[in-house]
Design brief:
The protein has 13 helices and no strands. It is mainly alpha-helical. This is Sugar ABC transporter permease.
C-alpha cells in the first residue's frame, strides 16, 4: 500500500493494452508472402479454366460477331464489309419464321413433359429407404449418352420404318396398323419421336436437380404439418414441397427453354436422310446457320444466325429470370 498523501507512479514500461512484439499504433496485417502464396494457388487452379473459357467461348464469339459484319464466302479473312446485311437477310428468310414455330411447338411439348417426369422421379427416389443411390444412378445414366447415338437408336430400333421397330411391334400385338413414324405428316408422328428421345436423355439430369432441392427442405416443416393435421401426400406436396422447390423449378424451366432453343441433333439425325432435311418438317433455329456454314460456306450469314440465336437466348433468359424472380431473396 502507498503511504497517505502520496501518489502511485505508473511504470514507464510498455503502455497498457500494448502487446509484446508489436509496435504501438500499427495494426497487425497479413504477411505479403502469405498473400502471394494464396494468389499463386488460386491462379494455379482457376487459371486453366479461365484460359479455356476465353479461348473456346469468348474468342470464337467475338470472331463470329466480326465475321457477321462481312461478306465471308469461303474465307475467314473477309474484306467486303456489309454491316447488318447478313442480319437482315437471316431475319427476312421465311425459314427463320418457320424455325420460330418449330421452337414454340417443341418447347410446348418438351418443357412440361420433362418437368413433370423429372419431378415425379425425384419424388419417388427421395421416398426410397434403400438403394436410393442405385436408382439415382440408373435414371441419370441416359444423360451421359450422346444425342447422336440416342437419335440413331430411336431411328433404327424403336421407330424403324413401317414394318419393323419396337413401337410397331407393340402396336401389332394389339392388332393396330404399323405407323411410319418419321415420314407421317398427318398426323405428324415425328414429333412424338423427337420429344421422347429428348425426354429420355434429359429427364434424369433434371431429376438430380429436383432431388437436391428436395433434400434441402427442412424435416421440421413436415413434422409441423403433421401436428396440424395435414395428410401426407397431395396436401404436404402442395403446401410445403412444391413452394420449397420454387428456386429449383425456376432454374429447371430456364435450362429447358434454353435447351429447346439449341435443339439440333435429334432433329437432324432423326429426320434427315441422303437427300437432306425433309421439306415437311420445319427446321430448328440451329439448322439455319448450320446450312449457311456447311452447305453454302457463307461464314458471314452463318455467324449472323449464331449471333441472333445467342441474343434470343440471352433475352429470353433475362426476361424469364426477371418474371420468375430468380436470384431474389426469399422473405
Amino acid at each position: 500500500m502507498s503511504a497517505p498523501g502520496t501518489t502511485r507512479r505508473k511504470s514507464p514500461g510498455r503502455r497498457p493494452g500494448a502487446r509484446l512484439g508489436r509496435h504501438p499504433g500499427k495494426r497487425p496485417g497479413k504477411r505479403p508472402g502469405k498473400q502471394r502464396n494464396r494468389a499463386f494457388w488460386f491462379w494455379t487452379f482457376v487459371g486453366p479454366f479461365v484460359a479455356g473459357l476465353a479461348l473456346f467461348t469468348y474468342v470464337p464469339l467475338a470472331w463470329s460477331v466480326y465475321l457477321s459484319l462481312f461478306d465471308a464466302h469461303n474465307t475467314v479473312s473477309p474484306t467486303d464489309f456489309v454491316g447488318l446485311g447478313n442480319y437482315t437477310a437471316m431475319l427476312g428468310d421465311p425459314a427463320f419464321r418457320s424455325s420460330l414455330v418449330t421452337f414454340a411447338v417443341f418447347t410446348a411439348f418438351i418443357v412440361p413433359a420433362t418437368y413433370a417426369l423429372s419431378l415425379g422421379l425425384a419424388l419417388a427416389v427421395n421416398r426410397l429407404r434403400f438403394a436410393q443411390a442405385f436408382f439415382r444412378s440408373v435414371f441419370f445414366l441416359p444423360a451421359a449418352c450422346s444425342y447422336v447415338v440416342a437419335a440413331m437408336v430411336w431411328k433404327l430400333s424403336v421407330f424403324n420404318g413401317v414394318r419393323f421397330g419396337l413401337a410397331n411391334t407393340v402396336l401389332g400385338w394389339f392388332g393396330a396398323e404399323p405407323v411410319a413414324w418419321l415420314a407421317s405428316t398427318d398426323p405428324p408422328w415425328y414429333w412424338l419421336v423427337i420429344v421422347t428421345v429428348r425426354l429420355w436423355l434429359q429427364a434424369g439430369f433434371y431429376m438430380v436437380l429436383f432431388l437436391a432441392g428436395l433434400q434441402r427442405v427442412p424435416v421440421r416443416l413436415y413434422e409441423a404439418a403433421a401436428l396440424d393435421g395435414a395428410r401426407p401426400g397431395w396436401q404436404t406436396f402442395r403446401h410445403i414441397t412444391f413452394p420449397a422447390l420454387r428456386a429449383t423449378s425456376v432454374a429447371v424451366v430456364l435450362l429447358l427453354v434454353v435447351g429447346a432453343f439449341q435443339a439440333f441433333d435429334e432433329f437432324y439425325n432423326l429426320l434427315s436422310d441422303s437427300r437432306g432435311y425433309p421439306p415437311y418438317a420445319r427446321p430448328p433455329l440451329v439448322y439455319l446457320y448450320y446450312t449457311a456454314l456447311g452447305q453454302g460456306q457463307d461464314l458471314g450469314l452463318g455467324s449472323a444466325g449464331a449471333v441472333i440465336l445467342a441474343l434470343i437466348i440471352a433475352v429470353v433468359t433475362v426476361v424469364q429470370a426477371r418474371v420468375s424472380g430468380l436470384g431474389r431473396k426469399e422473405e
